Amino acid sequence: MKKINIFLLLPVLMASCLKEPDKSDLIVNKNNPTNNHISQEEVVKPTREQIEERTVTDTVITHVVDISTLPVEIQEEISNENQKLILQLKNINKTNISGHLIPESGQTNIRFNNIELNNQTIDGPFGKDFDYNLDPKGNYGIVIGKSLMASGSQVGKLKIVLK
Question: Which residue, 60, 135, 73, 139, is CA-closest to 102?
Answer without folding.
Answer: 73
